[in-house]
Amino acid sequence: MKRGKIGLSLAVGAAISAVALYFTFRRIPFGDIWSYMGTIRYAWAFPAALVIMASFGVRVIRWQLILGPMLPTKFWEAYHPTMIGFGANCILPGRVGEFARPTILARERGASFFGLFATVAAERVFDLISLLVLLAAVAMTVPIDPDFQQTFGSYTLNKETLSAVSLGMVRLVLVVLLGMILVSVGKTRNLMARAIIKSPEFIFFLSPAARDKVCKKACEPAVALMERIAQGFDMVRSPARIALCLFLSFVVWGLLGLSWWIMAQGCPGVELSFFQLTAAMVIVCFFISLPSVPGFWGLWEAGGIFALSLFGVAASQAAGFTLVNHVLQTLPVMVMGGISAVIKGVNLWSLAGSREEAGEGDG
């Protein structure tokens, strides 16, 4: 990513995060939050951190399964790029870590970046499906006050808002799944390739020579790119592999929900069940899907306080728990990502250029 793009990404993210932080904490006295944080029993952070790191171990195993048909990979070969990528998301703008992970593995194994990036996209689909199922399950079993609402800037956040966001995520998952299937099935992919190659013929005002040039410069590279992406979606052809990946996805998010519950044991006033805290975690995940500064500061706090308030947690206690839990969820990832970067000899700051380098190297 060029310096100007980095600056623009940081500026946009910082503006959104600043607004989120302002509207999140403007009605909560800082002294109350500070006093509450002094009552937290921080010893609970250690078992919670262990559970968080266990969830990343399961993530690595899931990525190995997705990679399998395209590029069989050993655990540590997949582990270090995974931790570097997630660590980079905590300190670099524009979610660079999503591009860094396939870039690192592509350099080491000489594989197609776009094929590897498709496996990361497949991972995100599994995550979205898991989060939506968890949210639906929690909504059916955990009572949420239908009259509760919270003003956030010009928005009113309530149960209807949450339902609308969930519906939007469902539509996104369906569109991405359809795209994965169309690209993965040989017959439909061939039809799409023929349509792309034939498309210049419909540009009637071009000469035959110009149409040939468009085909060679744009259409043929587009078909080649689609073939590389299809390699990353090869696992779609195996129902057993899909079922196992879905199971591991639920394990990942179940472990992360458990880490929230463990940390809550040391936080007075946050006396919520595992299912309630899992619901709060899912809501936060929807909030941080918006652009923000690295580490999702501001949007995480807005989502966390809103979610905990749904279950009757006082504002100062919700703010204190959310801040501490945010640090707990990101610090171990940053530390392990840094260790993996040292082991692999990767400069995290140089990863900001991974998108351009990957695109050039895969051409």
How would you explain this protein's 3D organization?
The protein has one domain (3-361). Helix content is 74%, strand content 2%. The chain is built from 14 helices and two strands; from the N terminus they run ααααααββαααααααα. It has helices at residues 3-25, 30-37, 45-67, 75-91, 97-109, 113-141, 159-184, 186-198, 208-232, 239-264, 274-287, 299-310, 315-344, 354-361; strands at residues 149-152, 155-158. Strands 1-2 form a two-stranded antiparallel ribbon. Helix 5 (97-109) packs across helix 6 and helix 6 (113-141) runs antiparallel to helix 7 (159-184). The chain is globular, with a radius of gyration of 22 Å.
Give a brief rundown of this model.
This protein is an all-alpha fold and 363 residues long. It has 14 helices and two strands, in the order ααααααββαααααααα.
List the helices and strands and how they pair.
Elements: H1 3-25, H2 30-37, H3 45-67, H4 75-91, H5 97-109, H6 113-141, E1 149-152, E2 155-158, H7 159-184, H8 186-198, H9 208-232, H10 239-264, H11 274-287, H12 299-310, H13 315-344, H14 354-361
Helix pairs in contact: 1-12, 2-13, 3-4, 3-6, 3-10, 3-13, 4-5, 4-13, 5-6, 5-14, 6-7, 6-9, 6-10, 6-11, 8-9, 10-11, 11-12, 12-13
Could you say which overall geometry the principal axes of the C-alpha atoms support? globular
Which ranges are low-confidence, i.e. pLDDT below 50, for 5 or more consecutive residues? 1-10
Proportion of strand residues: under 5%
- Determine the oligomeric state from the structure: single chain
Distance between the termini: 17 Å
Structural class by SSE content: mainly alpha
- Tell me the count of domains: 1
Tally of DSSP β-strands: 2
